[in-house]
Amino acid sequence: MDFNLHKAVTIKPGLDVLPAPITDEEYRDLMAGENRYLMTEANSLDELEATFFYDAPVHWQAGELLEAITSTRLQLSRTMRAFIRTLNQKLKGTGITAGSDKTGDVAQSGTREIGGAEVGRARNVNGLPVLPALIPLSDGQTISILFHSPTAEKRITNSDTLIAFQFLLNKKDVTHTVAPMSGRDMTLAQVTMKLANLAEKNTAKFQRAQKKKKALTDEINQLQADSDQKEDALSDLADQAATVQSQSADLEQQVSVIAAQADQLDEENERLQAEIDELNRTGGRSDAATVAVSGGQARALTDRLANIKNRMHIDGHVTLSNGAEMRQGIVDGEGYIQLTAPDGSRYQIQAESIQGVHLEAAIGKLFKAYKAGKAEQYLVAAAPDPAPEPVPEPIPEPVPAPEAELTAGKYRYALQMRPAGVGAVPADNAGILPRPDSDDPYYDYARHGIITYNEPLSDEQMRNFDLKLLPRDESFDFLAKTLASGPFGKYARQYLEMATSAPKDFQSTLKMNFQKTFPNIAYPLGDGTEKLVQSMIAALQQEVAESKPAPEPQPEPAPETTPEPEISEADKAANQAIDYLNSINSMQSSDMLEIRNARSSVREAIAALQAAGRFDENEELVNAAARHLADLLVAIQKQGVNA
User: Fold this and answer.
1) Which region among 222-236, 279-293, 592-606, 625-639 has the lowest average model confidence (pLDDT)?
2) pLDDT tens digit sequence for 32-87
3) Which residue, 106, 527, 542, 631, is most buried by CB atoms nearer than 10 A?
4) Contact 336, 328 (CB under 8 A)
């Protein structure tokens, strides 16, 4: 809305017996359009200052300005009390009252309660000091009045004139609905009557909107509280797990210490047992030890039979002190004890029960006979050497077939916004894969894993379920050919030169055109970007080769013409940036990730325009693209509120 200080409508405190009320048509006009929700959102002084002083452009010399109430800074309290008193008279019978009972309170932000209204700090807007005032209504709505001072220079003093020029009901500008009669004087009763009518007509919708907003806020707070509670519980579990792990480490250390001590005790016991056996064998004399004669060799045996039986019972075999080995086994259901001497001789004795007392008896019988050198009766005859078998020709091992890639379906899609679940993804999927490793080209897209299908999904399905197709490496050539014959085709030769002279600019241009041409296909990152760039260079080379005309007969020399100026690399990138910015205005999406990517591409386009020195001439195009993306974000926010 534009304002002109020289075309004013003055409101005078005269007598008006029958002021005109707000008509239903005027109220419907206020509730029409995309900004109708502003009628049901109460304003605050902080929001009013932030919107008017920072975001809303004010053109002081074009249009029409409503000069509603004239006062001075010193008399502002009396003026606001008179205005609120008149407004309350018009609100009588509606159950709504205006004004605050606070006086003189100074908030932390510097605001002050004056005459029942909350008055903010004066700020300079386009060279004129502007002062906001906010009147609260008892049903939660707010009426805001903006004053300007034509007499003040840099700051407003007590003697400076204040002129009210704009009215807002909640966050909606109702200035020209409250006082639409251009060029005519209006009474204060007319203005307050229209404001009272608007507040009364709007109170029911306002209360419903506030109730819905409160329910949504309460739900969000409850979800946040539940999330905090679960995070606290998870933190407690993590602390318990850390405590258990610490205790486990301590126990493992204690077990290691005890095991080391046990090993030392075992070694000491073996040493003492050897000494006892030696004493038992010699009776304290220094005679030679008892030997077992086997195959003409004699070595001392110092093993105790009890220890041998224990080891056989636990391990099934034992190595004697002279190097011989005893073991137990089963053949055709019958047990046996076998002793293999160091020279390779084998002695064997049958045992009736491999698990019973007969086993221990067999162990003792064979060991005693071997120790006394009388085990020849249990000697097992050596089998004759078998004839050498013919060595078969080596059969080449079959080469194993390459393993198939671990995918459940032919077409892969990234789960960007939510995990797979009933109603969250299209039906008939072929399988779900976990999120890939961090070095995968599609790691950033597949935040909740990858879902696969045997048949491709439509663009509408991918858009509705926030899915992105993940192209494989073998698809890069096809995608590159599509781009080379499409947006890159007109300047294929120049883009091919850019790939060599300015590879970073080429990658940025490739990414921007890829996302524009394939909005539902994920742009590969990391190593995938380099592979796509190589495919794109090959496709451009093929496009340039195919675009060369066939040789024709040499025509007669034509008069020389001035060659067209060669387009610089910066201008090429700027042309691509302009094409992309033009396409943004037709973009319709509810995907937050896609909108964020588009905003990133807009920043890259701005950089390209600045590098080419063409930003000023295309500033309006840049602003239009930025506003459109902001509108898409606001639409997503509204959907969340209305859900």
Assistant:
1) 279-293
2) 777 777 778 887 877 777 776 654 444 443 334 444 467 777 788 888 888 899 98
3) 542
4) yes
In 443-521, which ranges are E strands?
450-453, 467-469
Q: Residue 24: what residue type?
A: D
The span from the CA of 434 to the CA of 451, in Å, is: 9
Q: Rounded CA gap, 136 and 140, in Å? A: 7
Q: DSSP readout, 64-119?
A: -EEE--EEESTTHHHHHHHHHHHHHHHTTTTT--BS-S--S-B-TTS-EEETTEEE
Q: What is the tens place of the pLDDT at every residue in 357-383?
A: 577 888 999 999 999 888 888 998 876
Are 596 and 587 spatial neighbours (Cβ–Cβ below 8 Å)?
A: no
User: How confident is the prediction for the chain on average, in pLDDT?
Assistant: 80
Cβ-based neighbours of 622, under 8 Å, separated by 6 or more? 581, 602, 605, 606, 609, 615
The span from the CA of 476 to the CA of 461, in Å, is 23
Q: What tokens appear for 462 in the block?
A: 């991918």
3-state secondary structure (DSSP) of residue 471? coil
Beta-bridge partner residues of 61: 4
Burial-class residue 161 by CB neighbours within 10 Å (0-12, 13-18, 19+): middle
Return the ∠ at Cα 235 (arms to 230 and 238), rounded to 5°.
Answer: 125
At residue 186, the pLDDT reads: 67
Q: What does the chain come to in residues? A: 643
User: Any residues with CB less than 8 A from the CB of 387 and at least 6 apart, and which?
Assistant: none
Strand order in the sheet with 317-319: 317-319, 325-331, 334-340, 346-351
Write the pLDDT tens digit of every residue in 248-259. Answer: 888 888 998 998
DSSP assignment of 193-251, as one string? HHHHHHHHHHHHHHHHHHHHHHHHHHHHHHHHHHHHHHHHHHHHHHHHHHHHHHHHHHH
Cβ neighbors of 37 (< 8 A, separation 6 or more) are 209, 638
Give the dihedral sign, CA 502/503/504/508.
positive
